[in-house]
């Protein structure tokens, strides 16, 4: 818990700096930035007054959510600077219809709105009132502030703030009292990295470089090739939700093929196959399907730190010759994933992020050049089951919960997959002026059909 009377600095860790470089690169080419949303569909109306009070307490406990980014500092790296007295606001809107498209249109408009860290809070909350008596809580946040799993922790923090009588509540009363509170200038990522010997870290980083050099030359493109210069200000959002029986079928197959429930390669196999079927360019032996897969570095059961990116990455790819057989491709990706972890590719990527965080201008230049050379990207993340206890929020039943990202290229797509109430959700965002809505819908349909094809 913090006093809101004195300014507080929170330095960016290596992963935060990577997201900042990506954000600045996207802004440079006309993109609204690297930001995300979490949608919480509630069965009933929320108590607006109670929610506002909880958000006020959240602002006091975590001043970083209303802070401003100081990026150009000679003495220090970039950091969040709190604003004494600033309160987290709740934006309310009443929609004309209760269908999902109205909510997704609101979300698309938010995605198209630039998120500039020097004038806008890095996290904001929107409460959408539907005519049928339901509410949707939409949390928009900068990816520089936190990773894709952190919003679930934020929602639990709001619950805690809702049930405390004042900001003087002790940390001993917190549901995660056994977890370490973050220090404003602490760097949990550096602590994790320094837990390994330097030689091991450097060898792992060299393996990352080697992996990139060994990839086939041509990445398969999904969107039409003549749209790379289209404006990036119109977003599309599309979601598919599988029922409990369908989800169980996929989980059972993953367990059979992988030896345990590893859904990342299971879903990714169908994603790669859908890209192959709908690709706009011809494929040959040099064609490849690839994406970076984020991995959380938070220990199981730990909630802190909430407002940081605590992640690394591994690289997943498939050759054209592996695409025809879905189950074989699943096993190939599963073996590749285990091999990358065995070779500490995640550690190598963390070492690379740490080194490049001191040269953000160089990383930004590289990202812009890469986007312009490869305008199609597939951003994929299997986020796993939603944190326990979020079936209820502020005394209301939660029917649906998912998180989605902006795309990171003009013709790219971002696909987030999670499990909530034993149902699998596939959530996609795309630039609608670069990828026709019909193609985006067909892409999601093709993935789900392939996942369910037995």
Walkthrough of the structure:
Helix 1 crosses helix 11 (360-373), helix 2 (48-61) crosses helix 4 (150-163) and helix 8 (263-278) packs across helix 9. The protein has a six-stranded mixed sheet, sandwiched between helices. The protein starts with 8 loop residues before the first strand and ends with a helix. It has two domains: 9-166, Chloramphenicol acetyltransferase-like domain (Chloramphenicol Acetyltransferase); 216-344 and 370-397 and 409-452, Chloramphenicol Acetyltransferase (2-Layer Sandwich). It has 454 residues and is of the alpha+beta class. A hairpin with a 2-residue loop joins strand 13 and strand 14. Residues 177-185 have low confidence and may be disordered. The chain is built from twelve helices and 16 strands.
Helix content: 25-40%
The radius of gyration computed from the alpha-carbon positions, rounded to a whole number of angstroms, is 21 Å
Straight-line distance between termini: 52 Å
Name of the CATH homologous superfamily of the largest domain: Nonribosomal peptide synthetase, condensation domain
Main beta-sheet annotation: 6 strands, mixed
Mean pLDDT: 86
Unreliable spans: 177-185
% residues in beta strands: 15-25%
The quaternary organization reads as: single chain
Helix run count? 12
Kindly state the number of beta strands. Answer: 16
